[in-house]
Structures
1.
Amino acid sequence: MSAPRRLLLVNGPNLNLLGTREPGIYGSATLADVERLSAEAAAAVGFDLRALQSNHEGVLIDAIHAAREDCAGIVINPGGLTHTSVSLRDALTGVGLPFAEVHISDVYAREEFRHHSYLDDVAAVRVVGRGVDGYADAVRELAALIP
Ligand code: CA2
């Protein structure tokens, strides 16, 4: 059977607040804008996109596990879990799908605690500090790796 032409877009804790606060760091686009621009980028390279945001680590992990059934790759902005979660890393490596790690802001120009990522050595693609357009870049770069 051929691989599914679908990507999962995962946004982690607090990213539902996009466009409502801290525009100086995260811009003025909303989560709905991010999901739309990502779906458009996916469609342009022949992929369907399913989007999920949750503030709950276990919900994110369950969605990553479920992606094994019908997705070819994952684009994820794990939010603050980037810097704390071995469990999220284990979920992503456990399902074995290629994934792209996205950060809207330039985490390396911010506080020291944002410089460490539990995902950076296992991500197939990393896009950092390109604003919300980075999601479209991540979709394209990830799709290019999927046969
Ligand atoms: O730059 C990114 O995309 C981050 O992943 C965003 C996380 C942060 O903990 C990471 O260090 C970098 C935080 C997401 C919170 O998003 C908000 C958006 C608007 C207003 C408040 C929070």
2.
Amino acid sequence: MSAGPSTTLPGRDVLVTGGGGFIGSHLVDALADDCDVRVLDDFSTGSRENLPEGVTLVDGDVRDREAVAEAVDGVDAVFHLAAVVSVDRSVEAPLESHAVNVDGTLAVLDSARRADARVVAVSSAAVYGDPSEVPTPESAPLEPLSPYGVDKLAVDQYARLYADLYGLPAVVVRPFNVYGPRQSASDYSGVVSVFLERALAGDPIPVHGDGEQTRDFLHVSDAVDGLVAAAESDATGEAFNLGTGRQVSVNDLAAAVKAVTDSDAPVRHTDPRSGDVRHSCADVGKAHRTLGFEPSVRLREGLATLV
Ligand code: NAD
């Protein structure tokens, strides 16, 4: 671990991989006024419509080293978000998930090393698996339970190694459950979107198991603040949790969604999902102390941004 040069972002050339996706597109929105923003995306889950005017688009795949080198060339900072994000897809097709998530990350880190760009590598709370300590600090054992989690552990460790071996100014963030506008309602990471969609339609809200499992729901605007703070800090070779530090049960989430949508949709308990983590919550002390990270959006307020 070492301190590296800090990068104040305004006026800089910045690349966002996965910038057409849920979190990436909010990050692009936040940067577009003050930075020259480039986006590398293959739009497999993201959308061109998410992008504001004036962004330079590199329509390509993070597995394509030439496309990555072209996208990274000349930028000061890279936010690396492009990934196969679905845990279920990683279980169905671990080789594909690995190729995008791990080989793609290596391509980004290696090009950034040549361009001497600062990198914010986006890992995940999935690296902790079923944590023994909740709220979970960054120092907790890293024992992922899915191919996606193992991929993210590789992202995490390669970024640290590139910092240690080559002096690349890379930093890692581990977001917990991010929610907000533009999130797809297609898999478990989109539980908030699924609940909202059902509540608004008056359809049953599907809660796995007893619903007393807890998650740490971070509004996307706070996640973006954490990403920017990580880029602008001088921390290098370190990982930071991004969450709220508050545990919310899935039952409480369903109740909050019903309240903000004024819905009387019933809650339907389904079989528990095998391999589901019981409790997940970030210890955000390190991110607060080092990055000044301070999530500010309360759950009900955040849900209201989606209605
Ligand atoms: P998303 O699916 O909306 O965004 C991923 C983006 O990457 C999409 O625009 C997609 O088109 C692009 N992409 C996928 N494969 C690609 C490839 N081979 N080449 C180029 N682009 C490709 O998902 P998201 O929720 O916005 O996730 C963004 C990042 O944050 C991911 O790295 C994810 O692992 C991480 N993350 C998300 C959460 C969450 O709660 N959403 C939590 C922890 C970590």
3.
Amino acid sequence: MIKEIENAPLLGRNSFGIDAKASRLVEFGNAAELAAYLAAREHADAPTAVIGGGNNILFTEDFRGTLLHCVGTDFAITGNTKNKVIVRAEAGLDWDDFVSRCINLGLWGAENLSAIPGTVGAAPVQNIGAYGAKAGDIIHSVELLDMTTLKESVLAGEHCCFGYRDSIFKHALKGRVVICAVNFALSREPSPILGYGALEHETAKLGDPTLENIRRAVTGIRSAKLPDPAVIGNAGSFFKNPLVPLRKAEELKERFPEMPVYPGDTPEEVKIPAGWLIEKSGWKGAALGRAGVYEKQALILVNRGGATGKDIIALSDAITEDVASKFGIRIEPEVNIW
Ligand code: EPU
């Protein structure tokens, strides 16, 4: 059922806890309902965008237009291939509920992505990833509604252009489609991914690498390092880890032998953790007005209470300039800035 809210408060709808408003917020259950709404609406000229759990958005002003929000939460097994089970989840389902339900069914593939805040519909957009796993690796296809033609379609995972915190939904399809459901291909065969740092060790402390133990280990690592948005406003990693040319990383490694370096998307580049660059620049735990850098993970900017989007941007700009002047690397936001 469609629910239309005029002058909608967004304070409880964004994890940064920014007090902004949207001219209109429209909740819909599925693609057919949304298509009918869009066909009949009176405000077709106003900017229209999609909001999921609001976990990766920084509002710097009120949104003067219509925000669409999926509230459909269906979850069902819809198919079996030789090795895989296909699970369909509607865009409004809480991501961690989705992970937990896959684990309860004994399905492998989503367990390392436990405890990531957000909705199923947001996962493909930034190709959420953690502890060696990425949503794109388990996405079979994405069900879409085109906002202009009002036609429904299904885009195969291999055509979603998944990259590091990136997908076609941030580029060619940005502002054109609404993700209404996602189909996942999961495995019944145990396939633990334990290569990331402390994960193997933390899992072993709990016993065998079962789905439940991996989930508990991931949840434990996350809660030790990452702030709970219900307690302190934040949007997870504020910056992406920059991809830098190999040569540049080697130069830096001579100056800073302790600098961590991870493989990049191609052999010519590597990823340097932005958290390390920010900490090394002296910003960990620092604050600028009501915006701060989290004490336990410098990649995360936090709302220390009553911060506006502009306060957060002022801090992010100051950090970006400082890191650029110290390391010659320009870090970029991972969070969407509206
Ligand atoms: N580091 C520091 N100081 C800090 C933070 C990190 O020196 O304040 C160093 C650590 O010592 C470590 C390295 O940076 O050597 C990497 O840190 P960590 O393992 O915490 O991961 P990350 O690269 O900072 C990324 C993702 C996280 C994800 C973790 C684990 C991005 C932008 N962030 O963080 O994703 O949970 O890896 O896989 O890629 C998110 O997107 O919101 C998020 C939390």
4.
Amino acid sequence: MPIDPSLPYDDANIFAKILRGELPCNKVYEDDHALAFHDIRPQAPVHVLVIPKAAYVSWDDFTAQADDATIAGFMRAVGTVTRQLELAEPGYRLMVNMGQAGHQEVPHLHVHIFGGRQFFQMICD
Ligand code: AMP
């Protein structure tokens, strides 16, 4: 069920619980800005989620509200994770679902990293 991105941040969302250590995750990477872990329902041979440590509902919320250092730290973390996973060659795909039409389901910003296969169509449905 897609979220309503206009709602305030919900501390009970599943990624907030993972950040607080209340739920487990299959961790790939962590630094001051970000946590990365394997998606529980992978849609590619490599499917990793990168989330900011701070509380942002969505890409829209993050890019409007976060300060430059927070945005830079998060973006650099996404790049670090792709290199750690050795995806730069032959390549990979990043995706952010935003809000209802973007079919965002978890109301804490996350970047999907897909890799380990050849991608073709950008949007299937
Ligand atoms: P989105 O539709 O962009 O909000 O994607 C949410 C993603 O979170 C989906 O790909 C889910 O499979 C993934 N997900 C949900 N719960 C968990 C969890 N506990 N651990 C890892 N991934 C999860």
